Amino acid sequence: MTIRHLKIFIQVAETGKMSTAAKNCYLSQPTVSQAIHELEVYYGVPLFERLSRRLYITESGKKLLTYARDTVRSFELLEEAMRKDRMVDRLRIGASITVGNCLLSNIVSQLQSRKPGLDLYTQVGNTREIQENLLNSTLDIALVEGMITHQDLVTVPVVDDFLVLACSPSHPFASRKTIYFQELNNQPFALRELGSGTRELFAHTLQNSGVQIKIACEANTPQAIRNMVMYDNYLTVISIRLIDEEVRTGKIHVIQNSTEDWNRNFFLVTHKNKTFTPAMELLRELSEQYKRPTLPEGISFGTLLPGAKTV
Question: pTM of the prediction?
Answer without folding.
Answer: 0.67
